[in-house]
Amino acid sequence: MFPRRLAAILNVPLFKRVAFHARRVSGQLDRHFFTQLLTAVGLFVAVATAAVAAFENKLTVAGLGSTLHWAITTVIGSGDSSYVTSPGGWIIGWLLAFFGVALVAAMTGAVVGFVIDFLLKEGQGMGAAGFRDHIVVCGWNSTARDLMEELRTDEYAVKVVLLHDSERNPAGEGAGAYFVRGDVTSEADLRRAGVPEAASAIVFPAQPTNEADMRSILCVMAIESVAPRVRTVVEVNNPAHVDHFRRAKADEVLVTSRLASRLLARSALYPGLSELVTDIVSGGEGSELYRVALPDDYCGLTVDDLSARLRSDHHATLMAISRRGRASVNLSTDFRLEPGDDAVVIAESLGTLAPLRLSTND
Question: The pTM is what?
């Protein structure tokens, strides 16, 4: 029970960040200097113990033990000054107290320096996220800004980490995203963003150019090498690059220009369609699109039965059924639900529906 609780405590994001900075700082320390300092203090305490034991006539095993305890407590500032009564003992006690003050000051300075370094590095995006089952946003553009606003209003309340090479968080301090400053193609920076423990990663091109698409492909390849189970969703500038992203093993590819142009064409043919689609896929008031888990007792239901149950029990409209990661619409009448199937529905809110939880183990 205790090891499990300890592991749960150590998995808290704050402790993970502190551990990351501790490893980083320890790698920059002059270990030879600190080894020599501790050795010198240890030798001084040992010599002082022997000298005080001789001055106070306590050269027995018990006397040496008591004197060693007094010497150590004196160094750390809690020694009993009445332990020594001889002039020689007084002088050694003063020296021990002096070195103790210097040692405590050095330790206090090291702790304060670590805290200041921790706060500065965190503010500059040089830390590590420490989250699990979160979303990593790689890169920044106007689409990414809209996505951040959308995620803030979503009922799933998922943690978001933004990985981008800039001096400060481009999403702003109030965006609710943990900022990691780094290169989206760097495996080390992707690990600091917590990609191996993430549920999904969304890649955005920094500029509307072909070169930005090429960099996004490198980002997808780096993510696949670090965390092949993480779902990668990519925004693409040029439709001709979609096949390249597929070969890089991107899970979902979205050409925003193509999507917008097709929606505009449909809206020209069918007035009001763009407003309907916008309302469904965006947060705020009105109905929204959700992917939800289905109860076990739904297994065996037909599409018509499932649609009726969702309407009567949850006021939700069935749009599609997903099986093994593939969503299907307009299924045949003999289709029946199996364990593990989930549904895509339209509803005003989740209500009592269970959202499909993203996980690296899916």
Answer: 0.64
